[in-house]
Amino acid sequence: MPDVKHFDSAEALTAVELLFWRKGAASTGIQDIVTATGLSRSSLYNAFGGKDGLYLTALQRYLDERSRPMFARLGADQRGLPAVTAFFDRLIRLRCGGDFARWGCFVTNAHADGPSEAAQAVIDQHHDSLHAAFLAALEVAEGKNQLRPGTGLAGSAEMLTLLAYAINLRSRAGTPRETLRAGATAAVDSLGR
């Protein structure tokens, strides 16, 4: 009878998510994954179908467990532009301090990994969810008469979405918190009355 290995798949996925987030798919080898998880290659392949399957699972997990809660909070916040400012303040705080400072965003980093079609679909989900959250906040802002006249909501939501990606990338490169905050403040102020 074959030796059956039992392991906590959630714990293994956490280790792999952090590994891919920090190093990226291209720079992460299967031996890195074995070392990070403590699992054998055969256990990894049997449970997750190899590096590509594991990467996709980790990327989707990051979106579902880290990104979507932030987006949901923004989309449900009824303050309008102050909600957008609060989102950027939190994003900058997360990207510039704590355990994951200078890691950027796993999904943002995935853009540079030459993503597979399946990974691109997760990246697109991330973008669409973030855009929808900003759009919801801007609709509230419009209802509260906080926006300058003629502000295009969809285009402004896209601008803010792209700014979030830029903050993720620039924080990874070590851009100071104050610089990132100044850029976010200028963008939000450009929308207000």
UniProtKB/TrEMBL annotation:
Entry-linked SUPFAM superfamilies: Homeodomain-like, Tetracyclin repressor-like, C-terminal domain
DNA-binding region: 29-48
Alphabetically ordered keywords of this record: DNA-binding, Transcription, Transcription regulation
Molecular function terms from GO: DNA binding
Domain HTH tetR-type: 6-66
InterPro entries (alphabetical): Homeodomain-like_sf, HTH_TetR, Tet_transcr_reg_TetR-rel_C_sf
A Pfam family assignment: TetR_N
Alphabetized PANTHER family for the sequence: HTH-TYPE TRANSCRIPTIONAL REGULATOR YJDC, TRANSCRIPTIONAL REGULATORY PROTEIN
UniProt name for this protein: TetR family transcriptional regulator
The species this protein was found in: Kribbella amoyensis
